[in-house]
Amino acid sequence: xxxxxxINSLARETVRNLVPYMSARRLGGNGDVWLNANEYPTAxxxxxxxxxxxxxxxxxxxxxxxxxxxxxxxxxxQVLVSRGADESIELLIRAFCExxxxxxxxxxPTYGMYGVSAETFGIEQKxxxxxxxxxxDITAIKNNLDRVKLIYICSPNNPTGNLIDPAxxxxxxxxxxxxxxxxxxxxxxxxxxxxASTQTTTRWLQDYPHLVILRTLSKAFxxxxxRCGFTLASPDIIxxxxxxIAPYPLATPVxxxxxxxxxxxxxxxxxxxxxxxxxxxxxxxxSLNNLTLVETxxxxxxxxxxxxxxxxxxxxxxxxxQGIILRDQRKxxxxxxxxxxxxxxxxxxxKLVNAISTLSNQTQPIKETENP
Length: 372
Ligand SMILES: Cc1ncc(COP(=O)(O)O)c(C=O)c1O
Fold this sequence. Notes:
four-stranded antiparallel sheet, alpha/beta, Aminotransferase_I/II_large, EC 2.6.1.9, Histidinol-phosphate aminotransferase, PyrdxlP-dep_Trfase, PyrdxlP-dep_Trfase_major, 2 domains, binds pyridoxal-5'-phosphate
């Protein structure tokens, strides 16, 4: 009998060896409190107004581009829209990195798709761990720039929740001048409204032609299911990215809803949502701080908090069994016993606090009875 041909042998070696990104949806779980994907807890309501589904959509829908440009305070030529910020992470690699010779650099612990996208394309990854204060290690970055064409910096960072010091960002931009693109991932920027106008790097685009900013409608705009993200950069960079993007990256209904989300009313609604999440974040941080299983609640500028527990495995599994799904971060460098918790609505936050509080009481060390 002929040996069955293994189709895997035809696949690219990098793909055979690739460990795919374990998205929250892929990890599964059976719950009614989903706090593992940094989504907004409730669904916004939109009506479709475009019904011409017999026609191909515009590659870069003009209304969406114009409205996002206005929202970001930029010109339409500085904006590209894509299938989520994830597609933009990949487009940058496709436009700027040559497999086998170029490298990307990023600073773990950080968002997983920088590594997965680089690996898919056979691009070397230089992983420069953050310093103890979760800021980039500038000296190490400087010493590792050989062959680096693209640097990803996530600010506020996923999963640690902190903003990157603007002075450090400027140092990285200076180190990369004339040699590499610096992509600052601002997926969560709307959740630090008190800082957003000073922390966003959009105004720096005029000073740094190699700066790229990544944004999304998945977080504060509550549209993770829409798959719509933005790249903000110089018109030259946008033109290069348009060379490698799919011919029709956005379905007509996606562009329709994105345009509605970016009206003045849509933006005001988004800001109210972000304010509600920030208020729930404060509630959650304060409530968790008092519990015995909780070691550290880290500060956050995002719609999630990172928490170090005395026994993260116990908390993760016990809540999982109760249908409260969190994101395990224990395998990330420096994040032993850490779980990431998305800020849900107030009811979800209360359920979470109650569950951890009950567990804390159950696992309270039994005090030795004093000798008479
Ligand atoms: C830091 C960061 N960047 C990008 C993304 C992807 O965003 P999108 O849903 O627009 O692809 C995420 C999603 O969780 C993220 O955390």
